[in-house]
Amino acid sequence: MSTHDGRTFPDGFVWGSATASYQIEGAAKEGGRGPSIWDTFSHTPGRTLNGDTGDVADDHYHRWQEDLGHIADLGLSAYRFSIAWPRVQPGGRGPLNREGVEFYSRLVDGLLDRGVQPVVTLYHWDLPQDLEDAGGWPVRDTAYRFAEYAELMARELGDRVHTWTTLNEPWCSAYLGYASGVHAPGRTEPDSALAAVHHLNLAHGLGGRAVRSVLPEARVSITLNLHVTRPVDPDSDADRDAVRKVDALSNRAFLGPVLDGAYPDDLLADTAHVTDWSFVHDGDTATARIPMEVLGVNYYSTALVRRWDGTGERLEADNHGDSSGSPWVGADDVEFVRPEGPYTAMGWNIDPSGMTELLVGLSRTYPEQPLMVTENGAAFEDVVAPDGSVHDGRRVAYLRDHVDAVGAAIEAGADVRGYFAWSLLDNFEWAYGYDRRFGIIRVDYDTLQRTWKDSAYWYRDLAAANALPG
Ligand code: PNW
């Protein structure tokens, strides 16, 4: 139960919803789109649950007008979507594919016509396959290719799009893509994962600077999935050191370069047996640091860790599914312990207090940096009634308690400018395919029909009132 029913939010607080291109668009071979690493990965047997792919997904590519109608009916002030790089620049370099650009141009116009602010993410994981074939994120050139693509998009859409996010969750791109291999491209090379971390940070800086070279007034940001990690025994120095290591790998590996212009010394020391970090060139971390109007924060759950003494079976209960390797590069003596429930259908524990802790902690460390919750939400098994209505009381409760936790953070002094529910629609949940549903709107994958869940009605009322129901 929320203890703060009736909590109100600051004037102008942004209520939005978020999606990502590969998760909703489908039309994988239409309109001149080139293949991405997620096409290759999802078509490789054994990589995704039930062999699901994004070939059709929500067919948003054809149903975008209907989807804009839902966004408008929800009364949202902003919509966060991503551009599929291989749709607009099929090989990741060279000339633009006009048909791909036109799709996003129409989408932007449609949003503006309905009074909804477009919030564009340039990279939500669908790297053009040609760039992976040339080495992918572990290779420096990928960052330069990203900057070129960012500049082209700013030229095409910058007359109407003012809010640009360079990368979504580079933690996932680097560690799930190149260390644990549960995400595309499915490589399990710990040293490559750290090179990917760096080239993603560099891409953010180069890309953000490229956008601003075209649009000096552009609002530029990055979205990070920051980990709230707690020690099993708060009085144990060893367990608290495990927390420090996870914080370095997952949070400060990105916050460091992006906000402070440097990698933390303890991260470099902790991973010295994996890489010498020689891929960091002079000036790179200064390049990665650009002023950002907001820092995007995605929050879902918390993690619990302790020092592993090297005996017995080391738990891999790290919330990341069936990992062939560990995403925690170099943290060989850290053990992830399954936190207390309740859990969502992802097996992630539900802990709204982590949301408050994260936002308040960030604003203490970076008092001048406004924040935006760019994703929060949950997968549950929804109940479809005989009349077709969809009931998702657990999602309503999850969203209510986490929105309340955002309110508590604001009350405690955090400068949080808005909240985006993940996700507008049920969609392709990466390695879990269509089996896990995060939408506030249900998608019937046979008919592709959209149906508002109880959470959609609840969210509409929240946005209209700018307050939790009393
Ligand atoms: C985020 N993890 O992904 C993404 O930004 C979305 O595309 C995704 O659908 C959503 O959260 C729900 O999963 C994550 O393993 C995927 O910690 C995996 C993790 C975190 C976020």
Helix and strand arrangement:
Elements: E1 14-18, H1 21-24, H2 37-42, H3 60-74, E2 78-82, H4 85-88, H5 98-113, E3 117-123, H6 129-133, H7 141-157, E4 163-168, H8 170-178, H9 190-214, E5 219-225, E6 228-231, H10 237-260, H11 265-270, H12 284-288, E7 295-298, E8 302-307, E9 334-337, H13 352-365, E10 371-375, E11 383-384, E12 390-391, H14 393-411, E13 416-422, E14 441-443, E15 450-452, H15 454-465
Parallel strand pairs: 1-2, 1-13, 2-3, 3-4, 4-5, 5-7, 6-8, 7-10, 10-13
Antiparallel strand pairs: 8-9, 11-12, 14-15
The structure holds 4-nitrophenyl beta-D-glucopyranoside (PNW).
Catalytic activity: Hydrolysis of terminal, non-reducing beta-D-glucosyl residues with release of beta-D-glucose
GO molecular function: beta-glucosidase activity
Keywords: Carbohydrate metabolism, Cellulose degradation, Glycosidase, Hydrolase, Polysaccharide degradation
